[in-house]
From TrEMBL:
InterPro entries: SAM-dependent_MTases_sf. It holds the Pfam family Methyltransf_23. It comes from the Bacteria. Its EC number is 2.1.1.-. This is Class I SAM-dependent methyltransferase. It comes from Aquirufa echingensis. PANTHER family: METHYLTRANSFERASE TYPE 11, TRANS-ACONITATE 2-METHYLTRANSFERASE-RELATED.
Length: 329
């Protein structure tokens, strides 16, 4: 089944969300204290790449990670996520309009993907828990429980979202992952998951340390995030909708995320980009592409050829949506 961008990000609603976000970046971040940071993967010195809504993105010349620097301090993000108009719009209007399509097109395939990943591991019958970090509305957890005999625990700091999960009969730990200590989670083999969270993290190294500390040997962590080597992000630059401050602060790629995980003690099983939308996105945004070769190519190829290019992009790990599987040795 072909997934189009329109179904999961309807343009009119998404554009309203982007408009509110642009306003919020001024309200919450224009006077924020900002700190210069090095590449969060290899600690190299990044070069300025693009600036959007007052946020400066750097690109690391060594590992190609894209990251916001100087980076506003955590306190500004806390205020923003607590009560900004765009945050509220996302959690209410945007979510309501897209829930059905997202459940079918995003969450069911993700549940299947995590199930397949678990079943491909040794002693997969020993997995007792899914730990869903930043589980939001708990849709993933509802879906995986319908296709697998496994318990799900949602880690969700938002009072409003935690309540929604509890009303669905899901177990919830109402904290940020970074506040979880050993003992907050039950014993038994666990598969930690997080979806579209990693690009938001203020300090990815600290986040990974906390996850690692709460894992036992042979526990697994599966997460999805955006890849900065994604072809749409690279070609569209500041016009890429994925480049959305203040939300998206880190764009690792399959190689740089592997480096980051190894540095934090994990062993990496795979870092893949199973995306489907890249060519759809660049075709729709052709006016923003500066490179004449790519503009010509997109209009020259027919639909079937575009699908072949998309397949090749996926094969080479060059799609903008990345899925990473790693474990604690
Ligand atoms: Zn780097």
């Amino acid at each position: 089944m072909k997934v189009t961008e329109e179904e999961i990000r309807p343009e009119v609603v998404f554009n309203e969300y982007l408009k509110l976000t642009a306003e919020d970046t001024i309200t919450y971040f224009s006077n924020a204290v900002k700190v210069e940071i090095d590449c969060p993967s290899c600690e190299g010195k990044g070069n300025d790449w693009v600036t959007k809504y007052g946020f400066n993105y750097k690109l690391c010349p060594d590992c190609k990670t894209i990251y916001v620097s100087p980076r506003p301090e955590m306190v500004s993000f806390n205020a923003y996520y607590k009560d900004a108009p765009s945050t509220k719009f996302w959690a209410t209007t945007f979510y309501r309009v897209t829930e059905k399509a997202r459940r079918e097109k995003l969450w069911k395939p993700k549940a299947q993907m995590v199930k397949d990943t678990i079943l491909s591991l040794e002693n997969s019958n020993k997995f007792k828990y899914i730990i869903d970090i930043g589980g939001g509305y708990g849709v993933f957890d509802e879906e995986i429980k319908t296709i697998m005999d496994i318990d799900a625990i949602v880690i969700e700091p938002s009072v409003h979202l935690a309540e929604i999960c509890r009303n669905k009969g899901l177990a919830v730990v109402e904290k940020f992952m970074e506040e979880i200590v050993f003992g907050d989670l039950p014993n038994g083999r666990k598969c930690f998951v997080s979806f579209e969270l990693f690009e938001h993290l203020h300090d990815p190294n600290f986040f990974l340390q906390t996850v690692f500390q709460n894992m036992n040997s042979d526990d697994v962590f599966v997460f999805t995030t955006l890849s900065g080597m994604g072809i749409d992000i690279q070609l569209l630059g500041e016009n890429s909708k994925a480049l959305s401050p203040p939300h998206h602060l880190n764009f690792f790629n399959p190689k740089s995320v592997t480096n980051l995980l190894l540095k934090n003690g994990f062993k990496v099983i795979s870092a893949l980009t199973p995306g489907k939308l890249d060519m759809d996105i660049i075709s729709k945004n052709i006016e923003f592409i500066d490179d004449p070769y790519w503009r010509n190519l997109i209009t020259y190829l027919d639909e079937e050829e575009m699908n072949l290019v998309q397949d090749k992009i996926v094969e080479l790990g060059l799609s903008s949506h990345m899925m990473v599987t790693c474990f604690k040795p």
